[in-house]
């Protein structure tokens, strides 16, 4: 665990919080896969009711974020990203655990997510208890035009 790590939850399209998330976004995602969102995509989701953005910080440094959208008693992990300089130190796991905790507190029963089949994050999701649901062949198109399968995972939060 990183000393001094704080997690802040943002539920509105706050300009500063979105700028912090965009800073991580621009460094975290490999451009080859075109997975990073634009600011307007992020703002579009943040204005929807039931969306929350959790940002991990140490002092002024922004380490990573998780973005979750909920509808009734289900939610979806839309994005999870940690700045490359801060990887491998438990920030991703902490953000995911906190997102699950927030969901549970809100009475949400399950969390779904979709991830490129070659993404290392799958190991994290499985370690956290997510179960594989199905594969969507060729769901993502990389910069070079190559297609990548998406895997969907789900975890029951409240049985
Ligand atoms: C996925 C991501 C959020 C993980 O963040 P992180 O802070 O490095 O993760 P943690 O340090 O909490 O590691 C948690 C677990 O994830 C797995 N993991 C994370 N990065 C890994 C890597 N590069 N290779 C293999 N396993 C990895 C490990 O199982 C690790 O558990 P361990 O420490 O017990 O081995 C980060 O790599 C990232 O931002 N990736 C780019 C964005 C992305 O693809 N997000 C997911 C789809 S939205």
UniProtKB/TrEMBL annotation:
Keywords: Acyltransferase, Cytoplasm, Transferase. Gene3D superfamilies: 3.40.630.30. It comes from the Bacteria. Pfam families: Acetyltransf_1 (PF00583). Residues 7-158 form the N-acetyltransferase domain. GO terms for molecular function: protein-N-terminal-alanine acetyltransferase activity. Its EC number is 2.3.1.267. The keyword Cytoplasm applies. CDD domains: NAT_SF. Belongs to the acetyltransferase family. RimI subfamily. This is Ribosomal-protein-alanine N-acetyltransferase.
